[in-house]
Design brief:
0% strand; mainly alpha; single chain; 281 residues
Length: 281
């Protein structure tokens, strides 16, 4: 009888401690995490942001006639300012975070165009350089932290590495998308279908294999960039080239409004999510 009571008491204490631990962990992550949780909303917004980055980048360099060097300088100056405020922020602020994501995709557009058209490196060589850069950043990240977890991120040094990886990933994705349409001669819809197929394979690998979620995350992150970029090109390029010939500022405005709407519902849903937290990847 006594042993039974002690066992019940122990189970009650263990349950209470577990609940308190979950509450504390939830509170810490909620208050100190700096980046978006990886959900279906994350990927939808990522794709829309890449479309916006493509159209906005082309608007700055082409529509305004500033050229790739000036556009590169402008977009990276804006990106640096946004990342400064993002990294200095005390917690995850959705509007600031996704504005920074848009800036990385816009900068990625300028990097790809600069490497191919101004420096004459070509998309293939440019992609290899960007792959090397991304692998270097991820290697440094793993060497320091012994993991590449992208949620939650609470330390400034980890977040800095995270954003460097994001910039390289978006630039690489842009170069790959341009390679499909410029070098392989695919139409914008065909390019989007190719990248969508790759994304589909990544999703399938997530469910049917035991491959690292971190690896699959970065693969999906890279290939959602050309998917959104080729769709952006489809909206803005001339009809004779397979596009819809929408003005870049109109296409950018449409993408921005869509992103704002999805972000609104994402934040609204997140506020309703109870603890305990779920570690995404």
């Amino acid at each position: 009888m006594l042993l039974g009571n002690l066992r019940c008491l122990w189970e009650a204490i263990a349950t209470t401690v577990s609940i308190l631990y979950d509450d504390l962990l939830f509170f810490i992550v909620k208050k100190m995490n700096k980046v978006a949780k990886v959900t279906i909303f994350f990927w939808i917004m990522k794709i829309i942001a890449t479309t916006l980055g493509e159209t906005a980048g082309d608007f700055i360099s082409m529509s305004l006639g500033l050229g790739y060097y000036v556009a590169f300088a402008i977009t990276f100056a804006i990106l640096a300012i946004l990342l400064f405020f993002q990294i200095q922020s005390d917690r995850y602020r959705p509007a600031l975070y996704w504005t920074a994501i848009i800036a990385t995709t816009t900068a990625g557009t300028e990097v790809s165009d600069l490497m191919d058209r101004s420096l004459g490196l070509g998309y293939a060589l440019g992609s290899l350089i960007l792959v090397a850069g991304l692998l270097s950043v991820l290697s440094i990240w793993y060497y320091r932290d012994r993991n590449l977890s992208v949620y939650p991120i609470m330390r400034k040094d980890a977040e800095t590495t995270y954003w460097l990886a994001v910039v390289f990933s978006n630039s690489l994705g842009t170069a790959f998308g341009d390679f499909l349409t410029s070098n392989l001669g695919l139409s914008y819809i065909q390019g989007a279908l190719v990248t969508a197929s790759v994304i589909g394979v990544v999703i399938a690998l997530h469910y049917v294999t035991k491959l690292s979620d971190i690896l699959l995350f970065w693969l999906a992150f890279i290939f959602t960039r050309p998917f959104g970029a080729t769709f952006g090109d489809f909206l803005t390029k001339p009809v004779k080239n397979g596009g819809l010939s929408l003005p870049r500022e109109y296409a950018s405005a449409i993408a921005f409004i869509l992103l704002a709407v999805v972000l609104f519902f994402s934040v609204r849903k997140e506020k309703k999510v109870p603890h305990p937290i779920e570690r995404s990847v």
